[in-house]
Amino acid sequence: MKNLLLTALLTLTATASAQSTYRILAPATTGGGYDTLARNLAKTLDVTRLAPNAAVYNVPGEGGVVGLREFVKMRGDEHQLVVFGLTTIAAMQTSKDGSVSLRDLTPVARLVNDYEVLIVPASSPYRTLGDLTAAFKSNPNLRVGGASVASAGHLFTGNVLQASGGNVRTLKWVPSSGNLQGIKAMLAGELDVVSSSYGVAEDDIKAGRVRALALSAPERIPGINVPTAREQGVDAELVNWRGVFAPAGLDAAGRASLNSVVGRLARSKEWRTLLVQEKQNSFYQPGVSFAYFLDREELRIKALLRDLGLTK
Q: Where are the alpha helices (DSSP H) in 21-81?
């Protein structure tokens, strides 16, 4: 009888554990911002015991759209999660088949913010943002790049050039597989200017290998000694946010459970400590307000893409 009771108890425990386990999609290669956020989520869910044994998997391609095409088929499953941000919203809008949209997802929470920074080699003649925008007006063949086409860096660069009176349609963006690869290309003499996530560029900035000309934040950020574009008279800003989503079709109980778990995670000291270590900026915005933010953000990104000539 004792053995039967023990077996039953172990079965119930295993079942409960399986039900609380999440599968988290990072729709990008390992090592990038989406992958880091997904693994931080899984690690915090485990160490806080909110949902042990969460599994992360990667499906890269098309700025996140390739992975999402399969993810949205798991409609109604509250234990399937995906992390992405601004770049993937842009990728959805530039995707040729239009097979995925925000209507296919349940926004759970906005979790982190990052900012773009325009950088040039330390030996560059461009010492200020004004120098750079003037150079672009006289030389539209300036080699400008960073991560993928329609990435946060591409959008911010276009925003800066347009706000300073330049012809943004002449911007010829040179894409790399990621921010780090773009910086390496610039240091190798293949690019004149790069727009990168500040977190990726920080070590090169502090080491003096590159010069930071402008940060995409709305106002000066404590601890970051880089002027914003707005400080320099250019009305341009961009927040490169990332959040977590579930498939569409969750019932009320599923949404409530998921919102509770992610809310407790975002307020935990383990989560905040991990983000500091990873040089990510915590910004928790729960589901309802996150969904409202997304409605406005989608329209803004659509306008930026149209200005760049990437959509009609």
A: 33-47, 65-71
